[in-house]
Amino acid sequence: MAMSKFWWKSDSSKDKSIHWMCWSRLTAAKCKGGMGFKNLRDFNTALLGNQAWRLISFPDKLLNWDPTLSYIWRSVMEAQALLVQGISCCIGNGQTVDITNSPWLPSIEDPFVHSDNKAISNQKVISLFKIDEKAWDIELVLDVFEERDAELILSIPLTENDKDTWYWRHEKMGHYSVKSGYNVIQASKNQPNTVDNSRFWRKLWNLKIPNKARRIQVNAQCPVCNLCDESAIHSLVTFSFAVECHQFSSVKQVAGDYHIFTEWLQMVFEQSNNRDICIQEDGLEQWCPTSSNSVKVNVDAALFTDPNRYNYAIVVRDHLGHLVQAMSKCSLGKVVSRAIRECRHQRSP
Predict the structure, then answer these.
(1) Which of 30, 70, 72, 289 keeps 20 to 30 A from 303, CA to CA?
(2) In the Cβ-directed half-sphere of 230, how many Cα atoms lie within 13 Å?
(3) Residue 8 near residue 19, CB atoms below 8 Å
(4) Could you tell me the sign of the dihedral formed by the alpha carbons of 166, 170, 173, 176, in that order?
(5) 298 contacts 309 by C-beta, under 8 angstroms
(6) Cα–Cα distance between 319 and 295 in angstroms, integer?
(7) What is the pLDDT of residue 186?
(8) Confidence band (pLDDT; 50, 70, 90) for 178?
(9) Measured distance CA(290)–CA(322) in Å, rounded
(10) Would you say the pTM of this structure is higher than 0.70?
(11) Stretch 170-175: mean pLDDT, rounded?
C-alpha cells in the first residue's frame, strides 16, 4: 500500500489520488507489460525459500521444529509450496530417495514417477541398481516402469557420490536463489494460453526516447475525413464508407438515439430478427443459385499498394451453377474509393 501511494500520489494531492492501474499489473515484469515492481509478499516468500534451502542443504542446523512454538519454523513453512515447484534430488547411493514420493526424475515440468506398480511402492531408488554394481538394472526398469518414466530413469548418470543431494531445477548451478524463486512464483500466477508479446515490450522499453514527456499533441479528428472526432461509432457506423458496407450487408440501418458502438449494436439486435443478420461460417461466402432462366454475375477486386496495381475478376453462371463466362484482369494504377473522394470533395473550397 505504501509503494502504491508513493507511485500514484503527487505533491498537489493531499489525501486522495487516482490509481490508474491495479497493483498486480504494476508488479508484472516489464517484458509482460508491467512496471517491474516487486510484489513484497512474493519477494518475502522467496527470501524465506532461501532459508528453507539452507535447512535442506545443512540439515544439522539447530532449529525448534515445533510449528506451534517456533516463529522461524512457521515462517519457513510459508516457502514450502515454492520449494516443491523447483526442488529435485540428485541420485547418489539411492538410499534416501523414495521412488514414488520424491521428485528425482530429470524433468523440469514434472520430476515425479507416474508408473502405478505395487512393486515400487515404498521402495528406495537403490532397489533399481544391479546387485554389487552401481548401475541401473535396465531389464528391471523397462519391466516395472512406463515408457516415459523408464527413459528418464535410464538417462540419469550414476556418479561415485555416496550421498543423495538436493538441487534447484531453475538454476544452472543447482543452487537456490531469491531471483529464481521469485520468478517461479510469478510464473505460477500467469494464466495459461496467454499471448506471448514479450518481444514487443522489450523493443518498447529499449526505445531511445526522453525519460519524461510534458505534453503530447494528439489530433482527435478522423484522419480520413477530418470532419468528426475519431471514435468507434464514427469508424464503424456513421462514416460514409461504413454506411456503404452496411448497404451491401444484411445489417440494416436502425433508427434511434445512440452515442456509443455497443448501444448501436444492441439496437441492431433488437430491431432485427436472427434471420436478418447472417454471418457465414469461417468468414466464407457460399454461392447461392439464382432463379430459373436467369444468370448471376459475381465480381471481386483486390488492391495492391506496391507497385500500385489492382486486379478484378468476373464470373457469370446460370441458375444451375454452370459457367457461362469468366474474365480477370490486372491493371496498373491507383484506385481511390468513392467514400474518400466524397470526403475530399466536401473538404475542398
Answers:
(1) 289
(2) 9
(3) yes
(4) negative
(5) no
(6) 6
(7) 86
(8) very high
(9) 12
(10) no
(11) 88
How many helices (H) and strands (E) the chain has is answered by: 13, 5
DSSP characters over 295-316: EEEEEEEEEETTTTEEEEEEEE
**Is residue 149 classed as helix, strand or coil in its secondary structure?**
helix
- d(C-alpha 4, C-alpha 206), whole Å: 25
Residue 91 contacts by C-beta under 8 Å, 6 or more apart in sequence? Answer: 97, 104, 125, 156, 158, 164
Cell numbers at residue 156, please?
540419469
Q: What is the pLDDT of residues 129-159, one digit of tens each?
A: 988 888 898 899 999 999 999 999 998 888 7
What DSSP string describes 172-222?
Answer: TTS---HHHHHHHHHHHHSPTT----HHHHHHHHT----S--S------B-
289-305, pLDDT tens digit by residue? 888 888 888 888 887 76
User: pLDDT (tens digit, 9 = 90+) per residue, 235-276?
Assistant: 888 888 888 877 776 666 777 777 788 888 878 777 766 545
What Cα–Cα distance (Å) separates residue 201 from each residue in 34, 35, 204? Answer: 9, 11, 5
Alpha-carbon distances of 275 from 30, 101, 251, rounded to whole Å? 47, 59, 11
3-state SS of the chain: helix, strand, coil percent to 5? 35, 15, 50
